[in-house]
Amino acid sequence: MKLLVIEDDRETAAYLAKGLSESGYAVDQSGDGREGLFLATSGSYDAIILDRMLPGMDGLSLLGVLRGAKIGTPALILSALGSVDDRVKGLRSGGDDYLVKPFAFSELLARIEALLRRGAEAPSVTRLRVADLELDLLTRSVKRGDKTIDLLPREFMMRNAGHVVTRTMLLENVWDYHFDPQTNVIDVHVSRLRQKIDKRFERPLLHTVRGAGYCLRAQE
């Protein structure tokens, strides 16, 4: 099992690396949020242990980028911020568990073992479905009812089904624009997508949320 520790306090990082290595894990370390993000997205880790307060990029922002990129590596947040609101914010930002500093290493180890068990037991999802619209993740094929739909890679929005996807999210995550290019690419894309998945079907699935963005869902 391979773990990534992202912690800027050298003493804490060394303590974690030593204890985890002695417990049989292979451990990589980073003391910077941006470097940690690079490792998390380029390496293959079974779990991530990260501090909230990091230089370069804070831990919650790091998790947000990972989850936005559909990287589901289990993550345990370590933090001296221990209020209920802090813990809730950490979990809602993509953390799978939250441990407050100071902590007992035995508890940390038990929590990591629990995360790894849950990851091993999680069923492999190969199909996404919204009403009668179905995406096969293995073949990248899409059908609505008995009709096969030819979609471009950028037209796969089903992982965000039920949630509002803003124009900014589409620009940054689909076209990699991190500024407003004053383009109508979103309007063209949504119009084309509607033609493909909703035209000739009685119930529309792709809805405009006024002032917010778009949502793929079964009912208005």
Q: What does this protein structure show overall?
A:
The chain contains 7 helices and 12 strands. It is an alpha/beta fold and 220 residues long. Strand 11 and strand 12 form a beta hairpin. It is elongated and about 60 Å long.
Radius of gyration: 20 Å
Q: What class, by secondary structure content?
A: alpha/beta
What does the overall shape look like? elongated
Euclidean distance between termini CA atoms: 45 Å
Residues in β-strands, percent: 15-25%
Number of helices: 7
Spatial order of the strands in the main sheet? 2-1-3-4-5
Average pLDDT, to the nearest integer?
85
Fraction in helix: 25-40%
Low-pLDDT runs: none
Oligomeric nature of the chains: single chain
- Strand element count: 12
- Quick one: biggest sheet? 5 strands, parallel
Characteristics:
220 residues, alpha/beta, 4-stranded antiparallel sheet, 7 helices, 36% helix, elongated
